[in-house]
Amino acid sequence: MIEFRQVSKRYDPKKPNAVDSLSLSIESSQIFGFLGPNGAGKSTTIKMLVGMLSPDSGTIFVDGKEVGKDSLAIKRIIGYVGDEPLFYEKMTGSRHLNFIADMFEVPQAIRKERIEEYSILFEMDRSLDDEISSYSHGMKQKLGIIAALLHDSRLLILDEPMVGLDPKAAFRLKKTMRAYADKGNTVFFSTHGMEVAQEVCDRIGIIGKGRLLFEGTVASLSEKRGSGNENLEQLFLELTEGAPF
After folding, report:
1. Residue 130 DSSP label
2. CATH 3.40.50.300 domain range(s) in the chain
3. Quick count: other Cβ atoms within 10 Å of Cβ 158?
4. pTM score over 0.90
């Protein structure tokens, strides 16, 4: 479903690459967690994946299509939630969701059903007639998640989706992600929440200083480090703090 081939991105020629020679393949029907400390290159990678940034070198493929050459076709199959929820603040939540549904040509009956289902699931049904400017950060995050789910995409890309969510909403998002992947779709999400990644991910990738340090299952990471410890938080700290791998 997703393939990075030697992808690099640099913002400042005087500084190291934000993403450095990233090669990574992610199959369909799985939840892939992308982990790394602040400034590791997670958001840059995601922005290149969705076409918001262009790599300086290398190639990215989604469903066999090259990002940058088949952008419209790729965007039609992606649901995306960015690292910061940005909206037209004077719109109501309902108007925003219908705006997104219009862009993806979701039929009226289907959009009505999905808006109702997901707004109830994330406890936003009583707020959709309010202006987005009145929403809290967590409510905006929920609205972005609902919008990303509306058009029944084949690839869900989430940049730190749990930030700002209350425990109930976070739990329901994890359940939604699992059900989404079990239908044959793919979830790619970045997180600082080690417990979240350990709980829901089929595979993980760990990035540090722009370079991919590990890709695989939590169990295989533990085995390679020879620790016999499957606590992802401890393994993550050992790896990103420069312990020999």
Report:
1. S
2. 1-77+155-245
3. 23
4. yes
